[in-house]
Amino acid sequence: MTHERILILDFGSQVTQLIARRVREAHVFCEVHSCDVSDQWVRDYAANGQLKGVILSGSHASLWEDETLRAPQAIFELGVPVLGICFGMYAIAEALGGKVEGGHKREFGSAELRAHGHTRLLDGIADYTTEQGHGMLNVWMSHGDNVTQMPPGFKRMASTVSCAIAGMADEERRIYAVQFHPEVTHTTQGAAILNRFVLDICGARADWVMGDYIAEAVKHIRTQVGSEEVILGLSGGVDSSVAAALIHRAIGDQLTCVFVDHGLLRLNEGDMVMEMFVGKLHAKVIRVDASEQFLGHLAGVSDPEAKRKIIGREFVEVFRAEASKLKNDHSRHVAWLAQGTIYPDVIESGAAKSKKAVTIKSHHNVGGLPEQLGLKLLEPLRELFKDEVRELGEALGLPHDMVYRHPFPGPGLGVRILGEVKKEYADLLRQADAIFIEELRNFRDEATNKSWYELTSQAFAVFLPVKSVGVMGDGRTYDYVVALRAVQTSDYMTADWAELPYALLKKVSSRIINEVRGINRVTYDVSSKPPATIEWE
Ligand code: XMP
């Protein structure tokens, strides 16, 4: 695909992906690559003339900790603008002959920044102007080192009370560096600064628009696949659903989706997936009801990791069996396996290779399957961030509620039934969970006019296989307990328990106890992550 682009070199900051998000919000395509790419790699990357600028990210490390954290010299020889952010500023200073020194104390948090010298990057961008006419910006700082001497050709672009050189620029070579983080929302003018860099200084074309992307992606899939056929494992989650809708738009009946029902899905989930894909999109979907097989293998197993392994293994088994049947049907030519891999997965695995990121999560992959089946891999969402995937899903006609669904783990209710999984437990949990979700959607917060489903990142019920005593009417009950869990998070690495309104909790509790025979007590989980995890197993 032929978009002009910005290259973001990642030095291992937690917020590098935010830089990419901001650039894409300016409708400019960009890619994140590890900072340890070679000079030759950089030259090859720029060779087709699409590269319009380079951004160097921050880092969790200090310049002194890791000598491999250096910018490839070639980026300064391409003639395209370069912007260094925080650590990226040191990398520029270091590469071009300036001086960086370890500060005596770390500066972390909001700061007031004064712009100097009317550089193109900051000119006319300010939160307010002082009586003396200085442009002032509220910015977010997080650093320990400082540039103490600028490289030849640079002039000071910004300062704060505690940081004399908080920004520097060589306007002739169009190299800019800032100590603060324009990519985080705490920097009020951050988006304006990044827009200025990519649109005005780099002059990149703002042609990254989701609506246009469909036509482009459809064309690309058609060229890739030709007259061959594609299989896709549909899970009901956002990524696989959007991938299916996109591929179906491109090649129609050349796509067959395989939907494995492991018996651990939410209430009516299987029917909803079929209704959407078969009923509305008219896609070919094979629904495999493997619940007995899964529950059979899970019988008597209560260790969480063992349960996860069994579910993962069986899932691959069932899917592989279906895929082989299709592949071995010689009346058709199945040659591709499609997956809903999205860009953060791609970046995370790249970062894992270079060991630059400190926290990496890997979940639920069917790695190795395409090779075993002799199928080529089709990953049409590989370049997209989650919110772009959602936008694309809606543009393809998937319902809003489906593309904005909370995430659901691969092992499903298997990790939400503590200990041994039984059908009886799964049936009770499904009903309780559906009531909770329904009320989260019903209750709205007046201040934001959003439902509590939208105000939480993930919410669900957990089945506790213990019995407690209750009283109902004139009788004593002795039934199971469920816990409700609702969290707010932006990255799922850390999460706060959601302060749901009491009225909502009251309604959910009363409905569950009255409507779900077999549950007589409801509790609310008030543990944050860490030290608790979001799921209970
Ligand atoms: P934890 O429980 O680790 O969950 O705080 C973080 C996020 O990951 C999801 N999760 C999983 N997703 N397979 C998945 O596909 C899994 O085995 C799995 N375990 C946890 C969890 O729902 C939450 O969004």
**Category by helix and strand content:** alpha/beta
End-to-end separation: 42 Å
Largest sheet: 10 strands, mixed
Q: Based on the structure, what is the oligomeric state of the protein chains?
A: single chain
Major sheet: order of its strands? 2-1-3-4-10-9-8-5-7-6
If you compute it from the alpha carbons, what radius of gyration comes out, rounded to the nearest whole angstrom?
26 Å
What is the strand tally? 21
Strand content: 25-35%
| Global geometry | globular
Number of helices: 16
The percentage helix is 25-40%
Mean model confidence by pLDDT: 93
Low-confidence stretches: 352-366
Bound molecules: xanthosine-5'-monophosphate
Annotation keywords:
537 residues, alpha/beta, ten-stranded mixed β-sheet, five-stranded parallel β-sheet, 21 strands, 34% helix, binds xanthosine-5'-monophosphate
Protein described:
This protein is α/β, with parallel strands linked by helices and 537 residues long. The protein is 34% helix and 26% strand. The protein has 16 helices and 21 strands. The protein has helices spanning 16-25, 39-46, 87-96, 190-201, 210-225, 238-251, 269-280, 291-298, 304-328, 343-354, 369-373, 386-395, 400-403, 423-442, 452-455, 502-515, and strands at 5-10, 29-34, 51-56, 82-85, 99-115, 128-129, 135-149, 155-160, 163-170, 175-178, 229-234, 255-261, 284-289, 334-338, 376-378, 444-445, 450-451, 458-472, 475-488, 496-497, 519-524. The strands form 4 sheets. It has a 10-stranded mixed beta sheet, with helices on both faces. A 5-stranded parallel beta sheet has the order 13-12-11-14-15, sandwiched between helices. Strands 18, 19, 20 and 21 form a 4-stranded mixed beta sheet that branches. Helix 1 links the parallel strand 1 (5-10) and strand 2. Helix 5 packs across helix 6 (238-251) and helix 5 crosses helix 12 (386-395). The two termini are 42 Å apart. The relative contact order is 0.09. The model is unreliable at 352-366 (pLDDT under 50). Xanthosine-5'-monophosphate binds next to loops. Xanthosine-5'-monophosphate binds at residues 308, 363-364, 407, 409-411, 458, 492, 529, 533-535.
